[in-house]
Design goal:
alpha/beta, 13 helices, 42% helix, globular
Length: 413
């Protein structure tokens, strides 16, 4: 199943490129990335990167990350989140992926129990890499596709790792304060029940999208909510999504020094360092709070506009009787949408018998490319999809919905 999940996204990407090369108009909402022409990185960060290269800062960085960057990350976290982590409790890497991989490697032995929700990003693959026992929580619309404490509790006894991501990829939804507190209490109670020398349960807390919350949505983290969680929480964070800097490759993890030292040891052999110039540039940029605030004001407005506009279009289609739906935008660059079209007939009379055929029809008839939740560990017949707006141009929204509306109208019962 791991290979099938991987190849599905690759095949979709290959199909999109092939069709674009033939001159077709494809509205590509599959990429969890930003189009730099639409969402460039902050100018101040760009200038710092150029300056670092001009000053020939191109040697190997330190294994745990340059000290000035770890100091800046520490100050940035305290300024914006009230979190206090020393430089010895922070590990720098080339984005979030190697950090997550190293956390799994540091904490999970073959056969250990790992708890994560579906849909969620790549937890199934990292659990597979470490030969873990997968405990998959089926997240539902009723809980905004986030796991609940009640769902987690039956499986927490003896577990090695609990994975949470909020705001979440692929759903663009968040864990609310009350539910996160309940989950943290479960972790603390489980660890209190374990004997001296017995392996503890850790929480991998991925907050890569935390700066992108919209409307009344607020981001909460375990350590600020319940300080007793500090010894058991390992964060994953970075500049990739906060500053549309996915290709700049600077991420960080913070947690107890005992855990960070293990992550550092693993990454020292993998060599997944963030490049020296980008580290030096990020170190200077992260304490430029005025530039950060200016950037986020515009950046969040542009992302939020796209999410809200597309959501409103889906509500209109739903009001017209089409079997579609969407979750109110909360955070990140993703909209959760639904196409419940199996059983419908295409204009040529062919029946849509499964979700894969629905995905293909949307691409063929509307030029709409989106990623089904089954690519994130959900059931293959789930009618829910991730729609990413990071490469969306405002001028494409109306024509895309015009084609989508026509494609839906062409279906018959």
């Amino acid at each position: 199943s791991e290979t099938l999940i991987g190849s599905e996204i690759v095949n979709l990407g290959n199909m999109i490129r092939h069709r674009k090369a033939k001159g077709e108009t494809i509205y590509n909402f599959t990429i969890g990335d930003f189009d730099p022409a639409v969402f460039p990185i902050p100018q101040a960060l760009e200038e710092e990167i150029i300056s670092a290269y001009r000053n020939h800062l191109t040697s190997y960085p330190l294994a745990d990350g340059e000290l000035d960057l770890r100091q800046s990350v520490s100050e940035f976290l305290k300024h914006y989140e009230g979190l206090e982590y020393g430089t010895h409790e922070i590990q720098i890497a080339s984005g979030g992926r190697p950090l997550i991989y190293a956390i799994f490697r540091a904490l999970v032995n073959p056969g250990d129990r790992v708890i994560y929700a579906a849909p969620s990003w790549n937890n199934n693959h990292y659990a597979h890499f470490t030969q873990a026992e997968h405990v998959v929580i089926e997240a539902t619309l009723e809980n905004a596709f986030m796991p609940t404490a009640a769902q987690i509790e039956p499986f927490i006894k003896g577990a090695a790792l609990l994975c949470l991501c909020t705001p979440q990829n692929p759903t663009g939804t968040t864990l609310n304060k009350e539910e996160l507190e309940k989950i943290c209490r479960l972790v603390l109670a489980e660890n209190a029940s374990r004997g001296i020398g017995e392996k503890k349960l850790y929480l991998l807390f991925d907050q890569m999208y935390w700066t992108l919350c919209f409307g009344k949505t607020k981001h909460y983290n375990p350590v600020s909510l319940i300080p007793e969680m500090r010894p058991y929480t390992v964060f994953v964070d970075g500049i990739s999504k906060a500053f549309a800097a996915t290709g700049v490759r600077v991420g960080w993890s913070m947690g107890p020094e005992s855990m960070i030292s293990k992550i550092r040891a693993i990454l020292s052999h993998v060599g997944a360092w963030a490049p020296m110039p980008e580290q030096k540039a990020t170190a200077r940029f992260l304490t430029n709070y005025a530039a950060i605030d200016r950037f986020h004001e515009t950046f969040k407005e542009k992302v939020g506009f796209r999410l809200t506009t597309i959501y409103n279009y889906f509500m209109r289609l739903k009001e017209c009787g089409h079997r579609v739906d969407a979750v109110v935008p909360q955070a990140a660059i993703y909209l959760t949408i639904k196409f419940d079209l199996t059983g419908k007939r295409k204009p040529d009379g062919t029946l849509l018998t499964n979700q894969e055929e629905v995905t293909q029809y949307l691409l063929d008839a509307a030029g709409l490319a989106i990623v089904p939740f089954c690519a994130f560990g959900a059931d293959r017949e789930s009618p829910w999809y991730r729609m990413s707006v990071g490469t969306c141009r405002e001028t494409d929204i109306e024509p895309m919905f015009s084609k989508l509306s026509a494609a839906l109208n062409a279906l018959t019962d």
